[in-house]
């Protein structure tokens, strides 16, 4: 199990949602679940900070939500399927938040996909260094 | 007695549902993706299954982090499409087959697959998109559907081998059900894709096509693929492919692939689709 966890950590540009992440991200991900309801989406849009502060999140998680910093949210225990509910409030698709996580304009990300996507062993950062 | 007549594998990309619901399937971007299902729609209208056991994963819709069942079977009479954050998909209510679902649950549990029984379940795009891809936009779905949810969100998902074995147990269950029903098992999700982090957008055509080859000719070999290989080669969300193995396990060893389709991209994902006939 430990050897497997080590191998998983070595996959570039990837956060595997394991027990450690799930424990850290429980409150954050469950907060995202509240956005499944239209009334809550409206309340969040009306007063983002106020709506977040009603829930017991870490300060860093609150700020990352306000910043829509998805990479940071992943680091702080967020899971992409839960975080997609935050994106949905903004009317953003998976492709839009993927582009954001890769630090490229959405048009550039879309073109990369049309050309066949990213090779499995290359992260965006490595791409740019090559 | 009930019998399994075939299996379908397909990606369940949410954006496919958005394209259907918004009438975009004929545009330049989506037409090539949907063209791979023209054969399938004709085929399914001839096969006319009574029940589909639809293997999919919930994407933080019905299950959250409060309860995370590794395998769960929907035993209710009907299921509503879930609100995943932007309202419910405008698709018909899914009519279940409670009697067969309960029979499968009882049978596989006695067969040592300790599946979770669910009586209230909203089903998300993982289940409704495959129905739309195969049946289009009918006013009511033309068959009953038994949702079978597999956890692939929280690591670790069940192994490919466990999924393949569950498929075999589902076959034994179906074949011991005392009604003349034509049953299909569908495995959904995949193929290679990664939605998160700086490696988002990953596509691995070689892995995907190799997987479809193995599923056709040597499913036991496909069942041996390890978690690390799915995650590394097919991306963090590509591990959904273990669900295709439930479908393949439910078919006979002599089942024949009658259709195979592969297209990149469907949004961030490699779209894969196969049809098997049992014999």
From TrEMBL, chain A:
<dbReference type="InterPro" id="IPR011986">
    <property type="entry name" value="Xdiol_dOase_LigA"/>
</dbReference>
<dbReference type="Pfam" id="PF07746">
    <property type="entry name" value="LigA"/>
</dbReference>
<protein>
    <submittedName>
        <fullName>Protocatechuate 4,5-dioxygenase subunit alpha</fullName>
    </submittedName>
</protein>
<dbReference type="InterPro" id="IPR014159">
    <property type="entry name" value="PCA_LigA"/>
</dbReference>
<dbReference type="InterPro" id="IPR036622">
    <property type="entry name" value="LigA_sf"/>
</dbReference>
<feature type="domain" description="Extradiol ring-cleavage dioxygenase LigAB LigA subunit">
    <location>
        <begin position="28"/>
        <end position="113"/>
    </location>
</feature>
TrEMBL record, chain B:
<dbReference type="InterPro" id="IPR004183">
    <property type="entry name" value="Xdiol_dOase_suB"/>
</dbReference>
<dbReference type="Pfam" id="PF02900">
    <property type="entry name" value="LigB"/>
</dbReference>
<protein>
    <submittedName>
        <fullName>Protocatechuate 3,4-dioxygenase</fullName>
    </submittedName>
</protein>
<feature type="domain" description="Extradiol ring-cleavage dioxygenase class III enzyme subunit B">
    <location>
        <begin position="8"/>
        <end position="271"/>
    </location>
</feature>
């Amino acid at each position: 199990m430990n050897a497997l966890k080590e191998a998983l950590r070595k996959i570039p540009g990837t956060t595997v949602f394991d027990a450690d992440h799930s424990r850290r991200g429980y409150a954050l991900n469950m907060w995202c679940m509240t956005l499944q309801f239209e009334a809550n989406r409206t309340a969040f849009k009306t007063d983002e900070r106020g709506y977040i502060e009603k829930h017991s999140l870490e300060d860093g998680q609150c700020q990352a939500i306000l910043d829509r910093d998805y990479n940071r949210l992943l680091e702080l225990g967020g899971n992409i399927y839960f975080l997609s509910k935050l994106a949905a409030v903004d009317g953003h698709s998976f492709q839009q938040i993927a582009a954001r996580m890769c630090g490229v304009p959405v048009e550039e990300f879309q073109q990369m996909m049309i050309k066949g996507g990213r090779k499995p062993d290359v992260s965006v950062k490595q791409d740019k260094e090559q | 007695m009930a019998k399994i007549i075939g299996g379908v594998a397909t990606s369940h990309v949410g954006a496919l549902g958005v394209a259907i619901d918004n009438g975009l399937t004929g545009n330049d971007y989506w037409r090539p993706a949907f063209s791979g299902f023209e054969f399938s729609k004709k085929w399914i209208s001839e096969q006319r299954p009574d029940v589909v056991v639809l293997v999919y994963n919930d994407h933080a819709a019905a299950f959250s982090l409060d309860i995370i069942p590794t395998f769960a079977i929907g035993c209710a009479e009907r299921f509503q499409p879930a609100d995943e954050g932007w309202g419910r998909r405008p698709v018909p209510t899914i009519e279940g087959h409670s009697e067969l679902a309960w029979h499968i649950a009882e049978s596989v549990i006695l067969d040592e697959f300790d599946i979770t029984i669910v009586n209230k379940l909203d089903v998300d795009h993982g289940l409704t998109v495959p129905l739309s891809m195969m049946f289009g936009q009918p006013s009511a779905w033309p068959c009953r559907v038994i949702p079978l949810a597999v956890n692939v969100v929280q690591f670790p998902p069940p192994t490919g081998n466990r999924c393949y074995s569950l498929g075999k147990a589902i076959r034994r269950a179906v074949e011991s059900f005392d009604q003349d029903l034509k049953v299909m098992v569908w495995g959904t999700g995949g193929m290679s894709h990664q939605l998160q982090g700086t490696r988002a957008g990953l596509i691995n055509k070689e892995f995907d096509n190799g997987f479809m080859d193995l599923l056709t000719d040597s499913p036991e070999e496909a069942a041996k693929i390890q978690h690390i290989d799915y995650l590394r080669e097919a991306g963090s969300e590509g591990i959904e492919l273990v669900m295709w193995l439930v479908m393949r396990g439910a078919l006979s060893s002599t089942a024949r692939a009658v259709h195979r389709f592969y297209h990149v991209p469907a949004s961030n994902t490699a779209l894969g689709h196969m049809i098997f006939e049992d014999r």
